[in-house]
Q: What sequence folds into this?
């Protein structure tokens, strides 16, 4: 288990409990040792609840970025059957930061698309830490066109710090690809639901989350820019990321109040990284509920619903 900075007291207690159990396995007084370890377990459980009861925006950002949180591939493997990945944008190449293809969700055919960060050094480099290049967004456009043609619902799983800012990506039309992908989300006449499972960073996230229904995991974040990037621009000091996180209103709770998202998915105590199976099940249940709400609607109604959702956000902002 990787512990975050604010979890150090928790790491100390859980470490001591594990040390006691290790000693108990070598001694004869296992009953007394287990009692002491159990007491430490209760203490760590209480501390864990207290730590996660009222996380500030910066701590939520840290939790959203936790390397042990389940990633897109974990959700696809657990929630979907008959997943058939499709690669390439039919123009330049394949982008491993974006995975997607045909699948079945609750035995119904669908298209699933998501950002994949990877779970160790090798896979993170392979997937470019979830930062998509233009060909990734063009692959997503191709998959959405396929879904529209065959009347399949689209499910997107968002987990990216943002689109890749490299020179090659800009040369191949990064901003245009993001804009086209966002436009495609608004055009397809099938149900489109999105879940922010970790980071929802900048236009790289919006290009997948311009959906009929948007849900966020309780400790995920969704923002126009990272706290560090915002602090660098506003105050010329990336170390003021805590102030930026507060100002950006990037938590699920703030965004639900603002009408940017529709649902908040509760996470296990201590975050999705503490119980990935429970978090994945909760996401699956929420996806099923969102799709059920949209099933049977006419294509024109779905498009109108999606467009109006984002037009209303602008109107609310002007009033505020």
A:
């Amino acid at each position: 288990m990787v512990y975050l900075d604010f979890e150090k007291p928790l790491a100390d207690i859980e470490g001591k409990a594990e040390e006691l159990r290790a000693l108990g396995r070598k001694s004869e007084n296992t009953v007394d040792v287990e009692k002491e370890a159990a007491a430490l377990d209760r203490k760590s459980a209480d501390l864990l609840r207290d730590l996660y009861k009222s996380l500030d925006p910066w701590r939520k950002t840290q939790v959203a970025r936790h390397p042990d949180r389940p990633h897109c591939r974990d959700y696809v493997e657990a929630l979907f059957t008959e997943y058939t990945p499709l690669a390439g944008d039919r123009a330049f190449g394949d982008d491993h930061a974006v995975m997607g293809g045909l699948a079945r969700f609750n035995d119904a055919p669908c298209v699933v698309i998501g950002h994949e960060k990877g779970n160790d050094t090798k896979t993170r480099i392979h997937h470019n830490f979830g930062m998509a290049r233009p060909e990734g967004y063009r692959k997503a456009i191709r998959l959405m066109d396929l879904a529209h043609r065959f009347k399949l619902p689209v499910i997107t799983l968002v987990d990216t710090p943002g689109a890749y800012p490299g020179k090659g990506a800009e040369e191949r039309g990064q901003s245009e690809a993001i804009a086209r992908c966002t436009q495609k989300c608004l055009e397809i006449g099938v149900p489109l639901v999105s879940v922010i499972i970790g980071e929802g960073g900048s236009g790289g996230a919006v290009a997948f989350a311009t959906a009929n229904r948007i849900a966020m995991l309780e400790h995920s974040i969704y923002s126009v820019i990272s706290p560090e990037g915002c602090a660098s621009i506003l105050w010329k000091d990336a170390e003021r990321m805590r102030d930026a996180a507060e100002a950006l209103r990037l938590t699920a709770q703030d965004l639900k109040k603002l009408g940017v998202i529709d649902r908040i998915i509760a996470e296990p105590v201590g975050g999705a990284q503490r119980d990935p199976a429970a978090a994945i099940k909760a996401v699956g249940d929420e996806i099923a509920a969102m799709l059920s709400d949209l099933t049977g609607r006419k294509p024109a109604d779905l498009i109108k619903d999606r467009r109006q959702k984002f037009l209303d956000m602008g109107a609310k902002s002007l009033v505020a």
Remarks:
- The longest helix spans residues 30-53.
- The chain has 14 helices and eight strands.
- Residues 5-53 form one domain.
- The longest strand covers residues 192-201.
